[in-house]
């Protein structure tokens, strides 16, 4: 693979956005950044600026207010980009899925590449999801645990 | 200058971004170890820049990419002036041109983070410029010349005569490397200040250019600091790497402070230290 | 062409042209007069450079004419003072006219053997005055048309305007050729007259008030000259400058008085008020007063007497005054929002730097001073002219309104940025001059140099701050609010701005040539040569300025940068606002309550840290101290 492609796999810059989450998943994301799990050794940095980010980490369900913001942030990210829906709420709306203001998971608003269920998501699962995302970037098919076992 | 030394000087100048990149890698690794983590590989900054280069081009306005290159370009010109042993004031002014490109690029975008970051960068320049100017003048008073060549010709290590100037320059290094407590206009990676402050509206290849420029400036600055022990380049390098390390420690200990604090401290401590040094030399009859 | 004729042309032609412009109030005739005069004056200045210096006396009829004109002028000043009910003007006017009358008719001391003395300094000043001055007056042709159109004036007063503008050139030329203190003083007062009339041209109350301020401050200088004449005549029975400078020890107080006059003309503290107030005048007035003429008179005066006051306390006080002015104006400029005020403070600051160099009074520092003078005149003229165009086109003087200029007025904005950049960055001449100034200050004896060094350093840092800030204002490109290009520049605008910009670049690339052929000769009669040039490089002995390498670097960086930007392209993205951009509209964001708000950004003025009022008060007190010290140091 080309040098730039290899570099993309080694340097994943993350932008985190909380759609309407209870902050449980957000705390777990932060935990993943702490020394105990240390995702910076994979080149992952929480960069906070969509213009410089490769991955959009979204927590919480999409609703009528934040769909505009979400679209805006997604549009401001230059390609190649990935979206990871962190937590059950982001995946499908979770326990709020049939609330009046909730649209559902964030895939109702922007295309999602990786879904990581959990309430709240464990940091290990987030890292797993990142590996999936990297594989997707590299064009490698996702590993199916059940087939292996 | 003969062809060989010219070639060496040019190559050294062009290689400063790579030197700076490696230093940035060391920075992240050491910072991680200080925080009891593993940290990224040493060449991580190069992966970052390559990845940025491969992003879809996205610009804020048509001046931005030209100015982003200007930042890198003038940093390289400044590096060249150092390797060709030219005048220190001139080197300072050319680095100022690089900064001007960066701040103009930031301020040209009507974005609050970028604009505010640019304004704060002016304040950072206002803080450290007097210190560097005073150090340059002190060097002139000691060696009789403003040029890098003059420092070599002086023969004795500057650090023996101007130790307080080195301490003052430590303040300057902290501000230039955008490390706490003075990373007010845009912090280095893992931290956010005003989102990314002066760097907010850069993306893709323009961000890559700014990163490379930042590395070139960092390497050039450390090259200048190594002149404080000109007779022995190894000791000189040790001095600048030592100051680099101190910056990292300070970054991990201190929180971010306000621009008022930066201005006041740099002027009242840094600038005054150089003055005291010069006064001591005058009283001691050395100049 | 012999020098006498050229001198006559330089002084006489502008008078004729001015009268012609006054009497023939027609746009096309005026354009012809101005263009023709410009051509003649520029040519005669160049020819004078080639012809070299001369000493002579014009006929006795000219001496009598000067006496008549001088007293007419002083009476007019008294009349103006009475009309404005201004006690300072009347008082200072009387303080001049009575002693002058006594001196002329009783003592009969105004005759001088060699009235006209043209040396290399005069020649350099002539070039600056005539080249930059003519370009500015050409610029004024377009500017005043637009100006009167904006003010919806029914009857054009441009004849009066151009009369005084062109007359100013005559007065300045006359001044730099005068060896007789009386003639110098006369031409000095003519410049005060032009200043007074031009500032009050628009006739508003503010204009009238500020013109009176300029008048009495100018008259202070006049009183200084009268005093110097008396002192000179008393000691050496002559009022020829050459005679006065031959006995410097006895002439200390006379020189101090002349220095005081210089300070008022160059708007050094505490005399800066008139220059700041002069901003109400139409921009060509500011461009002419502040770049090539009026203020240069003060600098010229100091340069003239510099060799005679080397090493004296007076010289040191002059240096201190300049340094303090430089530092304080830099900080005051940070607080300004009006574009012309910023330029005014910048002018006063740079003049302070020049005055500082003259005060240090070494060969190196005076080389720096003359170099600074040359480059400053060109760059400042350029800045004022382009700022004036912007003002006219957008109708605002507030720099915060200068958003989107790059789109709306690309040429003018580029000229503005080039002018600004040339004021403080390499490889332009101003940077070299400033750099030499730092060298000069650093190489003086430490107890003299150190306080000056501190002031220069602080001033430089603050200068970078407000210039970088201002460049920022001009380059803001607000997405969604792109202004359409609206840059119809008439001939005189284009000619003057591009012409002066080209001159700026040429003298910056050829800085070595300028220093070799113009700067060094101007001071080499009294000082040793310490600066040399090899090819394009300027060598100061302990350091050198690699002009070619720097220009090559600049050009390369911008060429490569543009190519790269062009090849990479890129879509334009909205600014980052935390995702709250209103879709499809770059200019608005959505608040938490759901409403749409306009995106606005504004500058940094350090309101809390720099209190303008108290800074100005401190500056005033220090300035008064300096002026008092100037006189006292020679009295005691």
Strand content bin of chain C: under 5%
Q: How many E-type strands of chain A?
A: 7
**Class of secondary structure makeup of chain C:** mainly alpha
Task: Round the Cα radius of gyration of chain C to an integer and report it.
Answer: 25 Å
Query: Could you name the CATH class of chain A?
Result: Alpha Beta
| Chain-averaged pLDDT of chain A | 88
Low-confidence stretches of chain A: 145-149
Approximate strand percentage of chain A: 15-25%
- Low-confidence runs of chain C (pLDDT<50, min 5 residues)? none
* Largest sheet features of chain C: 3 strands, antiparallel
| Distance N to C terminus of chain A | 30 Å
Global morphology of chain C? globular
Cα-atom Rg of chain A, whole angstroms? 15 Å
Quote the CATH topology of chain A: Rossmann fold
Structural classification of chain A: alpha/beta
How would you describe the overall organization of this protein?
The complex is a heterotrimer of chains A (149), B (287) and C (636). Chain A has a single domain (12-138), classed as 3-Layer(aba) Sandwich (Rossmann fold), CATH 3.40.50.12280. Helices cover 36% and strands 17% of the residues of chain A. Chain A contains 6 helices and 7 strands; from the N terminus they run αβαβββαβαββαα. In chain A, α1 packs antiparallel against α5 (123-138) and α2 (24-33) crosses α5. Chain A has 149 residues and is α/β, with parallel strands linked by helices. The radius of gyration of chain C is 25 Å and the shape is globular. A 3-stranded antiparallel β-sheet of chain C has the order 3-4-5, with helices on one face. A 3-stranded antiparallel β-sheet of chain C has the order 7-8-9, with no helix packed on it. Chain C has 2 domains: 1-55 and 71-243, no CATH class; 310-572, no CATH class. Chain C has helices spanning 3-23, 27-51, 60-83, 87-107, 120-150, 158-177, 181-199, 205-236, 241-246, 252-265, 273-277, 283-292, 294-305, 313-334, 339-360, 363-394, 405-408, 410-424, 429-442, 446-475, 491-509, 511-523, 547-568, 612-635; strands spanning 54-56, 116-118, 532-534, 537-539, 544-545, 571-572, 581-582, 585-590, 596-598.
């Amino acid at each position: 693979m080309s040098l730039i492609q290899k570099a993309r796999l080694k340097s994943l810059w993350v932008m985190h956005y909380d759609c309407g989450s209870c902050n449980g998943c957000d705390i777990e994301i932060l935990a993943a950044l702490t020394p105990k799990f240390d995702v910076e050794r994979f080149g992952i940095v929480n960069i906070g600026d969509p213009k410089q980010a490769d991955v959009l980490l979204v927590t919480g369900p999409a609703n009528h207010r934040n769909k505009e913001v979400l679209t805006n942030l997604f549009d401001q990210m230059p390609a190649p980009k990935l979206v990871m829906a962190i937590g059950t709420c982001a995946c499908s709306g979770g326990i709020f899925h049939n609330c009046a203001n909730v649209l559902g998971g964030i895939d109702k608003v922007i295309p999602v590449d990786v879904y990581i269920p959990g309430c709240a998501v464990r940091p290990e699962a987030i890292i797993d999801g990142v590996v999936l995302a990297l594989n997707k970037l590299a064009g490698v098919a996702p590993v199916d645990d059940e087939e292996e076992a | 200058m003969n062809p060989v030394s010219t070639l060496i000087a040019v190559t050294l100048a062009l290689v400063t971004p790579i030197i700076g990149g490696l230093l940035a890698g060391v920075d992240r690794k050491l910072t991680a170890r200080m925080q009891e983590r593993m940290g990224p590989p040493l060449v991580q900054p190069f992966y970052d820049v390559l990845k940025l280069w491969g992003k879809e081009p996205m610009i804020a306005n048509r001046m931005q990419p030209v100015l982003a290159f200007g930042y890198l370009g003038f940093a390289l010109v400044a590096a060249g002036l150092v390797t060709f042993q030219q005048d220190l004031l001139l080197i300072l002014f050319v680095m100022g041109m690089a900064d001007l490109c960066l701040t103009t690029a930031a301020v040209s975008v009507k974005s609050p983070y970028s604009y505010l970051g640019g304004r704060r960068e002016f304040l950072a320049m206002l803080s450290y410029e007097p210190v560097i100017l005073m150090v340059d003048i002190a060097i002139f008073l000691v060696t009789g010349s403003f040029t890098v060549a003059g420092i070599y010709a002086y023969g004795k290590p500057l650090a023996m005569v101007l130790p307080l100037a080195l301490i003052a320059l430590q303040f300057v290094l902290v501000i230039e490397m955008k490390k706490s407590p003075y990373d007010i206009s845009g912090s280095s990676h893992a931290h956010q200040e005003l989102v990314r402050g002066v760097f907010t509206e850069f993306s893709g290849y323009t961000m890559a250019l700014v990163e490379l420029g930042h590395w070139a400036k960092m390497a050039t600055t450390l090259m200048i600091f190594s002149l404080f022990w000109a007779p022995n380049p190894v000791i000189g390098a040790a001095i600048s790497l030592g100051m680099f390390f101190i910056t990292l420690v300070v970054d991990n200990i201190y929180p971010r402070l306000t621009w008022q604090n930066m201005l006041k401290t740099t002027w009242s401590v840094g600038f005054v230290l150089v003055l005291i040094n010069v006064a001591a030399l005058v009283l001691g009859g050395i100049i | 062409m012999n020098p006498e004729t050229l001198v006559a042309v330089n002084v006489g032609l502008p008078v004729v042209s001015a009268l012609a412009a006054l009497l023939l109030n027609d746009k096309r005739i005026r354009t012809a007069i101005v263009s023709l005069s410009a051509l003649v004056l520029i040519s005669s200045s160049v020819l004078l450079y080639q012809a070299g210096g001369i000493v002579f006396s014009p006929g006795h009829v000219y001496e009598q004419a000067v006496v008549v004109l001088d007293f007419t002028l002083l009476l007019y000043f008294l009349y103006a003072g009475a009309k404005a009910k201004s006690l300072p003007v009347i008082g200072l006017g009387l303080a001049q006219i009575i002693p002058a009358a006594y001196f002329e008719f009783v003592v009969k001391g105004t005759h001088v053997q060699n009235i006209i003395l043209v040396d290399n300094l005069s020649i350099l000043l002539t070039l600056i005055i005539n080249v930059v001055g003519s370009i500015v007056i050409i610029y004024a042709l377009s500017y005043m048309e637009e100006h009167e159109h904006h003010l919806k004036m029914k009857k054009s007063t441009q004849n009066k305007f151009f009369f005084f503008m062109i007359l100013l050139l005559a007065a300045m030329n006359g001044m730099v050729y005068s060896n007789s203190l009386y003639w110098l003083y006369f031409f000095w007062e003519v410049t005060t007259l032009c200043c007074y009339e031009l500032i009050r041209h628009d006739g508003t109350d503010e204009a009238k008030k500020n013109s009176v301020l300029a008048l009495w401050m100018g008259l202070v200088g006049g009183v200084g000259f009268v005093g110097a004449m008396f002192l000179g005549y008393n000691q050496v029975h002559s009022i020829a400058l050459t005679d006065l400078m031959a006995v410097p020890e006895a002439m200390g107080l006379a020189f101090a008085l002349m220095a005081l006059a210089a300070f008022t003309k160059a708007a050094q503290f505490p005399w800066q008020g008139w220059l700041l107030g002069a901003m109400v005048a139409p921009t060509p007035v500011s461009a002419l007063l502040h770049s090539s003429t009026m203020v240069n008179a003060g600098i010229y005066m100091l340069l003239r007497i510099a060799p005679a006051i080397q090493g004296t306390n007076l010289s040191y006080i002059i240096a201190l005054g300049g340094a303090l002015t430089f530092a304080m104006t830099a900080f005051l400029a940070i607080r300004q929002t009006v574009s012309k005020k910023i330029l005014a403070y910048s002018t006063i600051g740079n003049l302070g730097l020049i005055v500082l160099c003259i005060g240090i009074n070494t060969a190196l520092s005076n080389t720096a001073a003359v170099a600074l003078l040359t480059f400053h005149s060109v760059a400042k003229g350029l800045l004022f002219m382009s700022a004036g165009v912007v003002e006219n086109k957008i109708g605002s003087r507030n720099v915060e309104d200068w958003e989107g200029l790059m789109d709306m007025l690309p040429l003018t904005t580029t000229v503005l940025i080039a002018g600004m950049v040339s004021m403080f960055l390499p490889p332009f001449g101003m940077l070299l001059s400033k750099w030499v100034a730092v060298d000069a200050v650093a190489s003086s004896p430490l107890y003299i140099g150190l306080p000056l060094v501190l002031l220069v350093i602080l001033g430089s840092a603050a200068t970078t701050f407000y210039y970088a800030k201002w460049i920022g204002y001009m380059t803001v490109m607000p997405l969604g609010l792109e202004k359409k290009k609206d840059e119809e520049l008439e001939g005189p605008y284009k000619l003057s701005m591009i012409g002066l910009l080209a001159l700026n670049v040429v003298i910056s690339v050829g800085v070595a040539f300028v220093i070799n052929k113009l700067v060094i000769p101007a001071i080499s009669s009294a000082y040793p040569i310490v600066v040399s040039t090899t090819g394009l490089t300027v060598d100061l002995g302990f350091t050198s300025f690699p002009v070619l390498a720097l220009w090559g670097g600049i050009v390369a960086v911008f060429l490569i940068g543009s190519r790269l930007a062009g090849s990479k392209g890129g879509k334009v993205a909205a600014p980052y606002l935390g995702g709250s951009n209103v879709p499809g509209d770059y200019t608005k964001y959505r608040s938490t309550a759901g409403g749409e708000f306009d995106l606005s950004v504004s500058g940094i003025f350090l309101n809390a840290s720099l209190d303008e009022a108290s800074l100005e008060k401190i500056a005033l007190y220090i300035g008064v101290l300096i002026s008092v010290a100037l006189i006292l140091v020679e009295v005691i």
